Cyclopropane-fatty-acyl-phospholipid synthase (Aspergillus nanangensis), 426 residues
Amino acid sequence: MTAVIEGARSLLSSYVETLFVSSLRRNIVYGDIHLTIHDVNPSTKPQVLHICSKAHPENEKSPQPSTTVVIRNKQDFWLRLCQNVDIGFAEAYMSHEVECEDLVQLFKIYIRNWDQLQGLSSLMQLPVRIWTQLLRKINTENHALANASFHYDTSNAMFQAFLSDDMCYSCPIWSSSAPEEPLEAAQRRKVHAIISRAQIQASHHILDIGGGWGFLAMEAVRLTGCRVTAITLSEEQKQLAEKQIKARGYDDRIRFQLCDYRKTPRPVGGWFDRIVSVEMIEAVGKEFLEEFFGVLSDLLHPEEGRVVIQGITFAENLHAQPKYLDNFLDKYIFPGGYLPSVSELVSCVTTGSARTLEVNSIDNIGPHYTKALRLWREKFIANWDSIKASHVQKYGQRSEEELEAFRRRWIVGVFPLTDCICVKTC
């Protein structure tokens, strides 16, 4: 039986490899990939391929993204991809089955060629239906390792190792006239823009949904003298935020609470004057978006209230059909969450609030994320030894393989994905 299974795995792997490589050769219209494929037999000479973009008028307008991909274990790699292209690649990267010179460039090529590659995943999934029982047997230690590493909790110490001192874990706004400004300045500009857009005054009581580590709340109090109730579902965030708030002498103006937005205690007077939320809406979920805006409408001053939300949205052209990309985002970036498109978000605002909320303006600050993600990635890699040490201290000893899978999960799952998402403030 074992020989039959191994034979089936080998046949399926070869089928997927042939299908995938031939499809790339035919359909890539943007970008270049230098691909090296190592055989399971180390004595076999690696296959070296150059998959370049086809002639396309659009290609003449800008330099082409280019990267090198090395497949170290081709049988396991192709079997992962035939189950799910996006998750399969991420898990293969986490398990050292594939290396990539520049993940950002690879993601750009993938997203820009999305329409041309739409049929590929469906074709690769066809044999999976036939060999389902056999495929269940390839859940190797590396497979389990990649999956389990994601579920390890994360600590304040890890975020402190790669975020700026303000602990803002969201898209900043960079100055076009000061390209060398530090990340702290760009994050402060973003926070001040939200405070300004909300038109916060000293007499106002603000609700900050998903208050993070408290920087927005503290800046709002410092600049305006308002009161802030911030809610979060993270005990660690709450502890560090309260420590920082007390150190700055704002504990009489800011209250952090551990609760779901649907259970937000109603303030004295019955409502909040302003509601702000920075990159929390991604965690709401598709089925709860309308309810979310219904809750906001119920908590907001009915005549003079204003809401400012910064959120990550999915590009409209991908939102209509990204079944496989949704799986990747859900498993590795926003577990249990959902990235709406802008049009869907606007519709949910109107319907969910029973037309009591109206979108006044929308700004796209998505391009500002690229530089921030690059800086976070560089600091994460540079400070990996301290991140690893704090992780082991908090959660106990892990093997080097487990720790490396955890590191790679962040590198492949969080930092490089910029071309398929947008950040809107409305």
